[in-house]
Design brief:
Layout: H1 2-18, E1 37-42, H2 48-55, H3 57-68, E2 75-80, H4 86-94, E3 99-102, H5 104-109, E4 114-120, E5 122-125, H6 132-135, E6 143-148, E7 150-151, E8 153-157, H7 161-171, H8 178-182, E9 186-188, H9 194-208, E10 218-220, H10 224-233, E11 238-242, H11 245-249, H12 252-255, H13 263-266, E12 268-272, E13 276-277, E14 280-284, H14 293-306, H15 310-316, E15 324-326, H16 333-343
Parallel strand pairs: 1-2, 1-3, 9-10, 9-11
Antiparallel strand pairs: 3-14, 4-14, 4-15, 5-6, 7-13, 8-11, 8-12
């Protein structure tokens, strides 16, 4: 009987070493069994060398936090993907990276290979609604100190004759017709852009049964700055952009973009999308390290805590992230619908 009990105890002890972050290195520090390196990959938000330079401290910060939680690793390697969508997703899918900082679109594209762990936080606007009256009430949009998991996309008209005429109708509560929208010249971003293409297309699909691809006068801009310069000059009548575009460009509207009066007087909003959830931190389903639920939890908690420190925020600044919160896969369902629409399925 004693032998049986001893065998059961040994079995549970062995199981304990194989789960969680257990195990100790020769110096006595706990670390994940069989995992000496944590490999993180970042989407190329800017050029790789700039990102590496700014995010350099992130590895050391993570090492410190993970050690505090009994999940120490010998090394944290941070790399930058060669393309915004596929390269990082493919690395996660193959397990050559344990975790990745990627867009919601990339997460959905690879959601069979990765799990979403965290959603990035950003400062929200004081106008957080689809009610067009609020956007056109004559008061500027302002950033708040409220951290949110999402933003929106807006259809912003400018000082062109057609833009001003349509805005006046919207201010009176009249919904633009599809024919009126077809008559406008549009500036959009690439089809991979959430706020500059994907969600505006989903908005048009919901409201009119059409997408941006059905419009006859569409120009793809190199950047949002280019779109706003075209809007200011009257080259286009409307731009599709993130809803805080006017708050961002308020100072440059006249100085650099070519506006002839305040951006709040020369522009208006004729459409606002539903919430677009922020970038994600995803973990690879093929990563042995991330198969350990304790390590996965410790990794997420570490990033959340790092995002609440000045040093951490400095390292994350180039990514545009103000911290992190736990993610829910269902929050990206609109992104799934967008991708299905584009695929025609």
């Amino acid at each position: 009987m004693k032998k049986i009990l001893l065998g059961v105890m040994l079995l549970f002890m062995t199981a304990g070493l194989l789960t969680g972050c257990g195990g100790k290195d020769p110096k006595g520090a706990e670390k994940p069994a069989g995992a000496k390196e944590l490999k993180i990959t970042l989407s190329p938000y800017q050029d790789a060398e700039t990102i590496k330079a700014v995010t350099g401290p992130l590895g050391a910060l993570l090492q410190g936090k993970l050690k505090e939680k009994g999940c120490a690793v010998d090394k944290v390697t941070v790399t930058v993907g060669t393309s915004y969508n596929n390269a990082v997703g493919e690395a996660l899918g193959a397990g050559s990276a344990d975790a990745g900082f990627i867009s919601g679109a990339t997460y959905v594209l690879f959601d069979k290979e990765v799990d979403v762990l965290l959603t990035a936080l950003r400062f929200g606007l004081d106008k957080d609604t689809t009610d067009l009256k609020a956007w056109n009430d004559g008061t500027p949009e302002k950033f708040t100190n409220r951290l949110v998991q999402y933003y929106r996309s807006a259809l912003v008209v400018g000082p062109s004759a057609k833009g001003k005429a349509l805005l006046e109708q919207v201010k009176k509560g009249k919904k633009p017709s599809w024919d009126e929208l077809k008559a406008l010249k549009w500036a959009v971003m690439s089809p991979a852009s959430a706020s500059g293409y994907l969600y505006p297309s989903l908005y048009l699909k919901k409201e009119y049964g059409k997408t941006l691809a059905d419009l006859p006068q569409v120009i793809q801009s190199e950047s949002y700055t280019t779109s706003m310069a075209r809007l200011a000059s009257g080259q286009v009548d409307v731009v599709a952009a993130f809803s805080h575009i006017r708050a961002r460009d308020e100072k440059n509207w006249q100085k650099k973009l070519g506006g002839t009066d305040s951006i709040w007087k020369q522009t208006g909003v004729i459409g606002v999308t539903d919430k677009i959830y922020n970038d994600t931190v995803c973990v690879s389903k093929a990563s042995k390290l991330m198969q350990d639920p304790k390590f996965r939890k410790a990794f997420g908690e570490s990033l959340i805590e790092i995002g609440k420190t000045k040093e951490g925020l400095d390292a994350l600044k180039i990514l545009g992230h103000k911290g992190y919160s736990w993610a829910e896969a269902k929050n990206y369902d609109d992104e799934r619908r967008v991708q299905k629409e584009l695929k025609g399925t």
